[in-house]
Amino acid sequence: AGPNTVAGPGADPSCFTPVSDNTTYFQWPGREGPYKIALVNGFIANDWRVQMIAVAKAYAAQPDVAADIEEFKVVSVGEDIAAQIAAANNFIDQGFDAIIINANNTAAFGSVVRKANEANVVVLSFDNVIDDPNQIAINVDQKGLGKSAGEFLLEQSGDGPAKFLHVRGPAGQPVDIARNEGFLEVIKESGRDVEVVDVVGNWAPGDGQKVTADAIAAGGVFDGIYVQGGSQGVATAMLDAGVFKAPISGETENAFRQLCNKAGLSCQSGGTGPAQSSVTIKTAIAALKGEVVPSEIALPTSISYAPFKEGVEMFPKLPGSFFAGNNFEACNIGFTAEEIASQTGENN
Amino acid sequence: MSERKSPYLLSMSGITKSYGGVRALEDVSFETHRGSIHALLGENGAGKSTLIKVLSGVVQPDSGKIEIEGNIVNFANPQEANDLGVSCIFQELSLLPDLTVADNIGITRPPRNKFGLIDYRAQRQIAEEALARVGGENIDPMETVSNLSLSRRQMVEIAKALARNPKILIMDEATSALTAADVEKVYAMLHRLRDEGMSIIYISHRMPEIAELADTCTVYRNGRKVETFKNGTKSDSAVVEMMIGREYSSVYPAKSTRPDVSEPILKVENFSWNDELNDINLEMRPGEIVGLGGLDGQGQKQLQLGLFGTLIGSTGGVEVNGAPVKLNSPKMAKSDDIGIALVPEDRKYEGLMLSMTVRENLSFAAVEKMSRLGVVDTAAEEMAIDEMVELLKIKADGIDGPVGALSGGNQQKVVIGKWLMTKPRIILLNDPTRGIDVGTKQEIYHLLQKLAAEGCAILLYSTDYDELIGCCDRVLVMYDGRIVRTLAGDDLNETNLVSAALNLPEQAVIQPELKKKQGMSL
Amino acid sequence: MSVSVVIARQFDRATVIAFACVIVLLLIGAMVEPAFLSPKYLIQQLHTASFLGVVASGVMLVILLGHIDLSIPWTICVGGMMATGATGFLGPEWGITLAVPFGVLCGALIGLVNGLGVAYLRAPAMIFTLGMNAVAQGLMVYHTGGFAPQDRATEFMRELAVGHLIPGIPNPLLIWIILGAAIIFMLNRSVLGRRIYAVGNQERSVFLSGVDTRKVILACFVFSGACAAMTGVLLAGWANRSYQAMGDPYLLPTIAAIVLGGTNVLGGRGKYVGTIAGVILITILQSMLSVVQPQRYFAQLGVDIPADTFRQVVFGVVIIGMLLIYGRQQLVR
Amino acid sequence: MNVGAEPADLVSRQKHFAWVRRLSAAQRGILIAMLIFTAMFIVYGWKQAAGLTPNMINTAANKGALLALVAMAQTLPVITRGLDLSVGATFVLSNCLASTIVVGGPVATTFGIFGVLLVGLACGAINGVIIVYGRLQPLIATLATSAVYFGVALAIRPQPGGSVNFELADFMTRSSFAIPHSVLLLLAVVVFIWIPYRRSVLGRATFAIGSSEQAAYMSGIPINRAKLLAYALSGLLSAIGGILLTALTYSGAAKMSIANEYTLNSIGAVVIGGTSLFGGVGSAVGSIFGAFVMRTVGDLLIVFDINPVLQPLFVGVVLLVAVSLGSLRVLRIKNRLDIYR
Ligand SMILES: Nc1ncnc2c1ncn2[C@@H]1O[C@H](COP(=O)(O)OP(=O)(O)OP(=O)(O)O)[C@@H](O)[C@H]1O
Ligand SMILES: Nc1ncnc2c1ncn2[C@@H]1O[C@H](COP(=O)(O)OP(=O)(O)OP(=O)(O)O)[C@@H](O)[C@H]1O
Ligand SMILES: [Mg+2]
Ligand SMILES: [Mg+2]
Fold first, then answer.
1. Worst-scoring range by mean pLDDT, A340-344, B9-13, C17-21?
2. Are B80 and B96 a contacting pair, CB within 8 Å?
3. Lowest CB count within 10 Å: A223, A236, D250, D334, which one?
4. Ligand 1, closest atom to CA B396?
5. Other CB atoms closer than 10 Å to residue D137's CB: what's the count?
6. Which positions in chain D touch C208 (Cβ < 8 Å)?
7. pLDDT, tens only, C119-178
8. What is the torsion angle, in degrees rounded to the nearest 10, for the CA atoms of residue B256, residue B261, residue B263 and residue B268?
9. Shortest CA distance to B203 belongs to which of B42, B442, B17?
10. Residue D118 class from Cβ within 10 Å (0-12 exposed, 13-18 middle, 19+ buried)?
């Protein structure tokens, strides 16, 4: 069993955008709804994931979506890869129609995908996408994010030699590696003499703040900072040190945007918000209905620049942990920030 | 005892060993023959244990030479000593509490099956035989050692040492916790082994044991050898004087002869607990020293623990100073209006914090009395401690060193001192002179009398009948959790103690060997 | 005992060598990056060391008892998130005034449960506190996911974490100094201090000395929870917000720092001054390793190995090396 | 009359419950862990909509076996009254290495497996040498080596990937006649490693050391060799776990979080399995059940419909309850002194 590889174009191409022109298309035999869909998350104890799950639950509860869904189940299994594989297998055995995975280990799901295809279960992955061609990967262009960060910093730092600080994610994470690749690539292409200092901030505000503070205290003066996550901590460290005010390219945390506005920093803030989980659900339903969908879907990245527009790009009343970038207009998914925040509150 | 022509089986010479600043042994020599029992005597801290630790490879001497059968040997660890036929029962038991008796006995060289793995069945048989040899048939080889009482453990320890078929068997106070009955069996065994040609080195503070067992005696004092002599050639008091280096009179101070007019300070009625204590009734008056006798493990320890508030679900009444009390913790038992102290059985694990200083240990139970708002008044503490060190004549390099480095006797004094600092009115002592030299024993007996004279009531459990007879005003003999007889005055003698301990009818005949021991106490 | 004797007694051999190691480490580091010896860097290190120092203060007491507190990662998080989210529980006014005590109190409550489990249920601390860590994590995920709480630090928290009440000394360092002095006094001069060491030495003896050891254990766990939460409060003030998993990077360094400082993990032995040395050692080591750029040297050699490989390996090797110098245990005898 | 005999009725009273007392502390631990696991698994099976199919049992077994192997690895040092905080890192290192060298034909694969096992053994032996000859506290020594091992793992596999001999992987994670091969692997480890070890002189010596290191030394037990062996075997068992992980994921990944998760969970599993953290008492068999208990908690999430944000709390509470079950013995204690062992 498994999907038929068919010719494009697919359904709703503005929402289900193929990653490239070479992207293949899948079609499963259509089946009667409503469907049973499971989201197999890894760890949850992180603000992005909490928000991601809240949005997924909210999306699945919207009346027109809920009509297609018999059961929407979410489990967060923790950091362990074996537990995540087991949970996915379990849902396949329980007869779920589709499983959505945010993978703990992107390379580890070969057997799950094979088993799912044998059982005619649609597999989709997002955020940390599975690197297996026989499932639908809902991609954020991580490398592209690294590139645009590089472009921003190069542009902001004038001409001539420059020194950038790159506050990276956890060692060994494909997302970190892809962003770093993109970042270094544009720097190299620019032909400028740029020194990049790498520190590991683990995408957490505290870690990022600590390593940045250390780097600055140890005499580091930087012409630009790229921080992959925990952006506001890094900006805070720079401001606290008070040695220089460099342009910063960071993630989409609300707290970061607030700080950039307040301190008048030159900031780029880019990423794809946690609401991408709802795009994945939408894709799953389309695939289950038998529509033609790309095997790799590119999510739009939302990139904004300081000063951020209050109420549109930056939300003074919302928690700092709130991640912006949740508008997927083409998919007709547009949670306003307030909606998401209140969803998280209501949807226990 | 026949003098053999053969060269010494073992000869040690020029042995010196220091622990930090402490000279434990200084140029000590020692020789022993095949087929002899050689007793080592000396005060606490004289260096006896250190000498045998050197001999058995536990510690390395700073200098000196050891020869066995004429060959110079050098033991890097106990294993090597074992391999050359030196087997030692250490003062601190070296049993493994979580393993079974059989595992312990077979620990170093167990029988193996054809895969080279331990053959449990054969090991069990060996253990049974070894136990039978020492007279411990009633010990289950499959029992976990931690479930055994101290006296049973000593029996296992002896069996373990014997199972290795040593040429030289060293027993460092290996019989200190044994009951009279067990001691008899062990004596018989040692005599047999000696006649078979084994050389036995025997350390004990019980003079009668030495008198009965040893062929040769060597006395040590302050890390030096004093003299070696044939057993029986010196009077007991001469030996003791050699040990303590001063003149010596009777061990037991005169008992006080107060008429018991006062009201009882402690009154226990129908005290029962968990099948192990049954209907205990007892009264103690200020100034009285009451003994607890009987075979080991008949509820004496439990009775003391019960009075100290550690038993849950005990029934019956306890009155202190005429007021009924419900004792439910040691904290309550030691409180000012009750004032009970317990010197527990096992000083290392129940009485002391070994790596803390002597000072901290001494003041530990009473420290709240020497503090304000939870802050210790160090001046007051120091004064009280100095007083106690003085009173108990604690010999320590410095009282700011760890208590674990003290000799056994001094450790025991610290435990007693710790409780005296709380100024108790009722003192429960569980075998307080086990492993303590005659000199120190005497000091402790004097102390007990002094405390009694000051109005304390003392409940003394001892496995040593002489001690009970010498110290106590009356002795309650326990059997199977009951008090089966109370002995006082002329009735308080060894014959009666033994027959009561076995719960024999009052006029029963006692085996002749046991009678032999009478009169040998100092 | 005079004050100087008391102070001198805090510096045993291990502690002195540990401090010497700090200096050697800095000197070696300075060969690569001279700025490691600048006052600015050193103050910055002491500033961040204070966060570790505060949490290590509590855990050290627990370790002295012969127990361990593995719940600190999420207790830190509880401290931070409850302090920033206090408005949600106490209302906008009280929530801001009482943010710090509220956060610390919540941490102390977690410590209380730990203490009850370990002291009264006699559950092994290593696993009971591990379970409590999971529970605290669960509570915080529920809190974030269920209530969309406020996560911004109050002005006061911010001031507490980055301000300078005494010029030149960051407030967290001041807090650590005060806390440390109090602990040194407590351990050396108070009844509780004696009892803490004693329980770690031989709890049975302590019980039979008429001390309710359970209360001692309970007190230490509550204190440990409160210290961890205080670190959470400081971290939240420092980053200006609280966030999930903010305590995760602190568990292993805390234990490593305490043990590097000469405290015996089995309890009963250890000096607080040693812990100070350990905390500074770990902080500086981590910081120096994070700042140097080993991948450049490797790249010059033509090998492409991740910078983190170098950092991890050196971190482990340096800790073992230092302990081999001064942290070896006595032979059993 | 035998003078030394205990009073007759006393002996008979003790004999009465002989079989209960005969169960050693370790055996009682295994029994309790087995009971908890069975109870949980019954609930799991009963709440399964589709019933307990062989597939689901296989899934649960694969997941549990991984932790079981790491927990067995943790058991040995714990029995010596030590601790090994590097089991997780060794597990991850073996995973990364296996995803590189357990590939190709049968011969290459066999060599690969031996290579991984050897590296695991070496990691454990290094721990052992540092602890025994360096005389460092096991906790800090293994904390430090775990950083080193993780660093090496990261060098081998800077990002997730690699591959593994497909037939082998498939074989290791399948089941035959409804019996998961991973369970057979555990059984094999028990029969060919644990039981011989337990019954060997050095194996028993580890129990002796944990029981009382001083007494063990005085008894003439080769302390150093026994400890070395315990840590080395621990590394070997972690490496077996790493190979199974590779088979399950067809890849390797160097993630610190995985290493930490397995290390911490292994301690939980060991304790639930009845091994005393104070040494001297324990069994790797108990740890297997302890691991399955820990794992089944996660399975329960799937069958119960629990609000996602409450799931971690659920796991935490169940874990805490399972841990506290062992503590119920304090309720039976009749002598307060027995609490303080
Ligand atoms: N490990 C140690 N560290 C420091 N000093 C020690 C140590 N062991 C023994 N000593 C000291 O060495 C001396 C001799 O002690 P040893 O144990 O040999 O005496 P002993 O004759 O066996 O006494 P006892 O009759 O009390 O057992 C004592 O002063 C003791 O304090
Ligand atoms: N003199 C001593 N005093 C106290 N403890 C000692 C002494 N010598 C050794 N030990 C303890 O015993 C351990 C060594 O015992 P032993 O030499 O029997 O081990 P082993 O396994 O035979 O060693 P190896 O394999 O290296 O020969 C030491 O690590 C130490 O803990
Ligand atoms: Mg001695
Ligand atoms: Mg003695």
1. A340-344
2. no
3. D334
4. 31
5. 20
6. 337
7. 998 888 988 998 999 999 999 988 887 666 788 889 899 999 999 999 989 999 999 999
8. 60
9. B42
10. middle
pLDDT given for residue C208 in this prediction: 93
The CB density around residue B259, as the number of other CB atoms within 10 Å, is 6
Domain ranges of chain B: 10-244, 250-339+424-522, 350-422
DSSP designation for A264: T
Q: Which residue of chain D is at minimal alpha-carbon distance from A71? A: D305
pLDDT tens digits for D19-55? Answer: 555 667 777 788 888 888 888 888 888 887 767 788 8
- The proportion of chain B whose per-residue pLDDT surpasses 70, expressed as a percent, equals 92
Lowest-pLDDT range of A2-6, A127-131, C238-242: A2-6
Give the right CATH number for B10-244 from 3.40.50.300, 3.40.47.10, 3.40.30.10, 3.50.50.60.
3.40.50.300
Q: Is C35 on the interface with A (CB under 8 A)?
A: yes
Residues 6+ apart with CB under 8 A from C244: A45, A46, A47, A50, A321, C77, C140, C141, C144
What ipTM was reported for this prediction?
0.86
Supply B439's token pair. Answer: 């000199």
Q: Which residues contact B179 (CB under 8 A, 6 or more apart)?
A: B151, B295, B296, B463, B501, D4
CATH number assigned to the domain comprising residue C263 = 1.10.3470
- Segments of chain D with pLDDT less than 70: 1-23, 50, 341
Per-domain residue ranges of chain D? 25-44+56-326
**Which chain C positions have a beta carbon within 8 Å of A44's beta carbon?**
141
Which residues neighbour B129 within 8 Å (Cβ) at sequence distance 6 or greater? none
B371 and C191 in contact by Cβ < 8 A? yes
CB C189 within 8 A of CB B376: yes
- The closest of B208, B154, B179 to B41, measured between CA atoms, is B208
Say whether B96 and D208 touch across the interface (CB within 8 A). yes
The answer to whether D316 touches C137, Cβ cutoff 8 Å, is: yes
B270 lines ligand 2 (CB under 6 A): no
D22 CB within 8 Å of a chain B CB: yes
Helices (H), C163-291: 171-189, 191-208, 213-239, 251-260, 272-291
> Count of domains in chain C?
1
Tell me yes or no: is domain D25-44+56-326 CATH 1.10.3470.
yes
Among B58, B333, B350, beta carbon nearest to C205: B350
* Boundaries of domain holding C158: 3-332
